[in-house]
Design brief:
heterodimer; A: 17 helices; globular; B: 320 residues; alpha/beta; Rossmann fold; five-stranded parallel sheet; 5 strands; 42% helix; 7% strand
Chain lengths: 477, 320
């Protein structure tokens, strides 16, 4: 079930009513409603996927219980390994089996060996990369005694499958989300209204900006050999906006929806295209995944400590894994490698934590230096997006070659809607860059009529200029 | 909670009412809108007392040329409407009968895999029901033909169009596309397909692979055909060459389609064009160009037993 679908528009109010009115203020009943709703939401794609999420939840629930009963180091390690093998095994099989088979076959063929491999016809279950990481973080945190294991099976299963963030995050930590399932939830009008606003802005980003960009981008990438460099340049810039608005739009809707049910999810995007260097970009882009990798891989393997060689190795490891997480294709590995290369000079010169606060704080305009920094960070990010979007490395290289070889030409016409809405979008994001989301504002400063006019205008734009329903890009990851 | 629910209720009620109000102006441009589908539908009265009325989708308006029939003294009109399927057929024919005095001798109805697919009867993209002489509301369309999932799209389209009509007031765009009337509904296009054109619209059919043919559509078509038959109108179904169209559907879908055509053929004549046309007779992936239309139109005429205005299909339940 897509957030931008008629089914979800019917589903959400029904769950809302059941949750707040028919549960009799009973915590257990509310968790059961959330669990059942989440399974309906997920099963809407393919009910067979449900078996995987139930299995994954059950394994980690039992691992948690096992860890609570055992102090023996070996037993605890075995339990943790069980969780890791099951979760990574599921992910590896469903997402990477054919990729590794193909890569091995190609490698053998390259050295002149004949190798007959058998590809499997595997369907990638939606959101598997997200919920396996979420359950895995629970087992690791319990193992490290950062959190206490839960005995409440309904709460745990509801935590793993919580429908707003189930298929594309934010990837929640058990320490943040799980306790909220134990706590009695009271309806908070301000929180719910703010949630509705965040949903609205998320829909605007997804349906208007991302989907309209997608129409242009799909055409340009599919037929890049017949377009000139300037068109390809605009195509990849639009892709930068498409992927940002698609994914952060989803996160906004997820966070907003959670707030309607009294939950607080972690922030996933913090206006990343206003970053002054690539380190800041990675602190602002897909925050829940970046911090997951930081906490569970980067820091355990040494992080930024140790020799220069170790630092370099750790950075490459984390970015290559991050690339592979996004998809079973070498293009994602190159995308990760490029980002590692961008990041390394900053880390080796200890300048990776220079820009921690909001850009141009308390000012309307950035200064010259900040503008150059933002533009250059955006440019190198855009270059890496070519690999992220292309179907193969060959296609990406061909795209880049054509782009630079005929950059100063007249591009194909840009849809008017995009030429108007992208600048509008950048301006409002800039003006609200110190907020959690663009529609977060002080209700005392803006009259109700003005607020409603803003909402109606956005709804009108969404319905009138939506780019046609397209799936969220991150579902494929 | 109470405050929240009241606010949400008022917010969405007001939104709905305003949308309906603005949306009601969606068809005030019916006199000057230059869309060829609208022009074709708005010109129905001019084509009374026909020998043959052709009903179908874009394949029809691209592939049947009434001027060829004129040469043989046959009065025809091409009422092909983009994306038309069984529901559109029903709606368009109802409107036709309300607006003409003499029934056509025969009505030829297009059969194609695409008219039973999810691409057919796209009320939201082509809101022809709003441009009829007696417009039908979006709500009545949903009540009569079902598919409530299409309602938000239809409402949005009406809102957008109503808004544009009120703001832009583009009344100076007077009476364009009137060659459609001169050509009796035929859409003249002499483009010959190229590799780029072949690539261009491929994505439009991506959803066809997951299509399942709904046999209820067969009942709808047969009910419509029988109704026409009871009114003394000869009903003939026809297929047109559609280049690469079949490659977009699964073999199961095409098999079901074949069975459906056979079922129709048990009761009504089906004209099957078995001509293999070269690529130069197509303008894109699935539409004939003017040269292809000429061949097919001549082919249909040759199947008529007598030409010269009195031609008839000799026996029913016959495959041509």
């Amino acid at each position: 079930m897509l957030f931008n679908s008629i089914e979800f528009a019917v589903f959400l109010p029904i769950v809302f009513v059941l949750y707040w009115f028919l549960s009799g203020n009973n915590l257990k009943a509310r968790n059961i409603i959330l669990l059942v709703s989440s399974y309906i939401f997920y099963g809407w794609w393919d009910w067979r996927f449900l078996s995987l999420i139930v299995f994954s939840s059950l394994v980690d629930y039992l691992v948690g219980l096992g860890l609570s009963k055992s102090d023996a180091r070996i037993t605890r390690k075995i339990l943790l390994l069980t969780s890791i093998i099951v979760n990574i095994g599921l992910l590896g099989f469903f997402k990477y089996f054919n990729f590794f088979i193909d890569s091995f076959t190609n490698a053998f063929t390259l050295f002149g060996f004949e190798f007959n491999s058998q590809r499997l016809n595997i369907i990638l279950p939606v959101g598997i990369s997200f919920y396996t990481f979420q359950t895995l973080s629970y087992s690791i945190d319990v193992y490290k005694r950062k959190i206490s294991p839960t005995k409440d099976i309904v709460a745990f299963f509801a935590f793993v499958s919580f429908f707003p963030q189930l298929v594309a995050g934010p990837i929640e930590r058990a320490a943040n989300l799980l306790p909220q399932f134990y706590t009695k939830r009271i309806f908070d009008n301000r929180k719910a209204v703010d949630g509705m606003r965040q949903i609205l802005w998320g829909l605007f980003k997804k349906v208007v900006i991302a989907d309209n960009c997608a129409n242009f981008v799909n055409d340009v990438f599919a037929n890049h050999s017949i377009y000139n460099g300037s068109t390809l340049f605009i195509g990849v810039i639009f892709f930068a906006f498409q992927i940002y608005c698609d994914f952060s739009g989803y996160s906004d809707i997820a966070i907003g929806t959670s707030r309607l049910f009294g939950f607080n999810l972690m922030r996933n995007f913090a206006f990343p295209y206003f970053s002054r260097d690539i380190a800041e970009f990675w602190r602002r882009w897909h925050i829940s995944l970046s911090t997951w990798f930081r906490d569970y891989i980067y820091i355990p393997i040494g992080g930024s400590k140790g020799s220069a060689w170790q630092k370099v190795r750790n950075v490459f490891v984390i970015f290559i894994i991050s690339g592979l997480w996004h998809g079973a294709n070498w293009t994602f590995v190159v995308w990760g490698l490029l980002n590692a290369l961008y990041f390394l000079p900053l880390m080796l010169s200890s300048r990776n934590r220079e820009n921690l606060d909001t850009i141009a704080k308390n000012r309307i305009f950035p200064n010259f230096k900040e503008s150059i920094q933002v533009l250059s960070t955006f440019s190198i990010t855009v270059l890496a997006w070519v690999f992220f979007r292309a179907k193969s490395i060959k296609e990406a290289l061909s795209y880049i070659y054509i782009m630079f070889s005929s950059l100063f030409t007249i591009p194909k016409s840009i849809p008017l809607i995009l030429s108007l809405l992208i600048p509008f979008f950048i301006i409002v994001e800039w003006l609200q860059r110190d907020k959690q989301h663009v529609l977060e504002f002080d209700v005392l400063k803006i009259s109700k009529i003005s607020r409603w006019l803003i909402y109606y205008s956005l709804i009108f734009i969404i319905f009138s200029f939506g780019g046609g329903q397209q799936e969220f890009i991150y579902f494929q990851f | 909670m109470k405050k929240f629910l009241i606010n949400v209720f008022f917010f969405f009620s007001l939104l709905f009412l305003v949308s309906k109000l603005i949306g009601s102006f969606d068809n005030i441009d019916h006199l000057y809108n230059s869309n060829h589908n609208i022009r074709r539908i708005r010109s129905i009265e001019l084509f009374d007392d026909l020998d043959i009325l052709f009903i179908g989708n874009s394949y029809t308006y691209a592939g049947i040329n009434p001027e060829i029939f004129d040469k043989y003294g046959l009065k025809t009109y091409n009422l092909g409407i983009a994306t038309a399927g069984p529901d559109f057929y029903d709606l368009i024919l109802n409107d036709y009968f309300k607006r003409t005095r003499t029934k056509p001798q025969r009505i030829m109805i297009l059969l194609s895999p695409v008219i039973f697919s999810n691409l057919a009867d796209d009320w939201a993209a082509y809101p022809m029901h709003r441009y009829l002489k007696y417009p039908v509301s979006n709500e009545n369309i949903i009540l009569k033909y079902g598919k409530p999932g299409k309602y938000p799209g239809m409402l949005t389209k009406s809102l957008k169009k109503g808004f544009t009509n009120l703001i832009l007031k583009n009344k100076n765009k007077m009476l364009q596309n009137f060659d459609i009337i001169d050509r009796k509904g035929f859409s003249f296009d002499d483009t010959v397909i190229t590799d780029d054109l072949r690539k261009k619209n491929r994505h439009l059919y991506s959803s066809c692979k997951s299509d399942l043919l709904d046999m209820k559509d067969l009942d709808k078509l047969l009910a419509l055909a029988n109704l026409l038959k009871h009114q003394g109108i000869e009903v003939v179904f026809y297929e047109l060459p559609a280049n690469e169209l079949n490659t977009f559907f699964t073999s199961d879908y095409l098999e079901s389609y074949k069975k459906l055509v056979n079922s129709i053929n048990n009761q009504f004549a089906v004209f099957r064009s078995n001509i293999e046309l070269e690529q130069k007779y197509y303008r894109d992936l699935d539409h004939l160009n003017v040269f292809g239309a000429e061949i097919i139109s001549e082919n249909i005429i040759s199947k008529l037993k007598i030409v010269g205005g009195e031609g008839t299909f000799e026996t029913k339940q016959q495959t041509y």
